[in-house]
């Protein structure tokens, strides 16, 4: 029981530290606790623990209550490192098989979704993996079972449909698809919306 409490308190500390590090408006612990991204992260960590223990209905209830309070819609099975910071949280959607690695940052109205409404085979990955130190700017959408590498910046309102290599900048308002990614002349050239 003590190690479980220690893990929980360590997770809470990591969530609050991420808010301090990434949000200049967060100056006190109270600021952090009232930040919707921090509330959403804490609720998700709790829901994820329940989900991994087979308590799926209770996990969904926690996720639903968190969505009502924070405006963030995240499936309890999504794997989100506690050092991830979600600024403003409003309108963020994170699908069931999504993974977000350490020190990533998401702004409001980001979607990590799948590319179809059908059910894939059981346990299939349908959502993206977001690498460490990556920033997903306002309104960006990353769709399908793709990987966005480390240290990537996805600009505002960009749509990402193919893997993005490490240290890449996806321009705002663009579409990153396989044909653009694989183009030998300009792997970062995207069609502007």
**Rg, Cα atoms, Å:** 17 Å
**Shape type:** globular
Strand content: 15-25%
Question: In CATH terms, what is the fold-level topology?
Answer: UDP N-Acetylglucosamine Acyltransferase, domain 1
Any overview of this molecule?
The chain is of the alpha/beta class and 193 residues long. It has one domain (2-192): Hexapeptide repeat proteins (UDP N-Acetylglucosamine Acyltransferase, domain 1, 3 Solenoid). 33% of the residues lie in helices and 18% in strands. It is built from five helices and 16 strands. It has helices at 2-22, 29-33, 36-52, 56-70, 178-182, and strands spanning 73-74, 79-80, 85-86, 93-94, 99-100, 105-106, 111-113, 129-130, 135-136, 141-143, 147-148, 153-154, 159-160, 169-170, 174-176, 191-192. The strands form three sheets. The protein has a seven-stranded mixed beta sheet with strand order 1-4-7-10-13-15-16. A five-stranded parallel beta sheet has the order 3-6-9-12-14. It has a four-stranded parallel beta sheet with strand order 2-5-8-11. Helix 3 (36-52) runs antiparallel to helix 4 (56-70). The chain starts with a helix and ends with a strand. Residues 184-193 have low confidence and may be disordered.
């Amino acid at each position: 029981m003590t190690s479980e409490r220690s893990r929980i308190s360590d997770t809470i500390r990591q969530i609050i530290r991420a808010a301090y590090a990434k949000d200049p408006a967060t100056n006190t612990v109270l600021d952090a606790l009232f930040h919707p991204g921090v509330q959403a992260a804490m609720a998700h960590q709790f829901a994820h623990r329940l989900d991994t223990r087979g308590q799926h209905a209770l996990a969904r209830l926690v996720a639903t209550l968190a969505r009502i309070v924070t405006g963030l819609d995240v499936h309890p099975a999504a794997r989100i490192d506690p050092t991830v910071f979600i600024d403003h949280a409003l309108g963020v959607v994170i699908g069931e098989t999504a993974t977000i690695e350490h020190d990533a940052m998401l702004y409001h109205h980001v979607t990590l979704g799948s590319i179809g409404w059908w059910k894939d085979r059981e346990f299939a990955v349908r959502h993206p993996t977001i690498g460490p130190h990556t920033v997903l700017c306002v309104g960006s959408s990353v769709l399908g079972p793709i990987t966005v590498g480390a240290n990537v910046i996805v600009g505002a309102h960009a749509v990402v449909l193919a893997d993005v290599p490490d240290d890449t900048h996806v321009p705002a308002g663009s579409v990153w698809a396989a044909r653009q990614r694989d183009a030998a002349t300009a792997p970062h050239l995207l069609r502007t919306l």
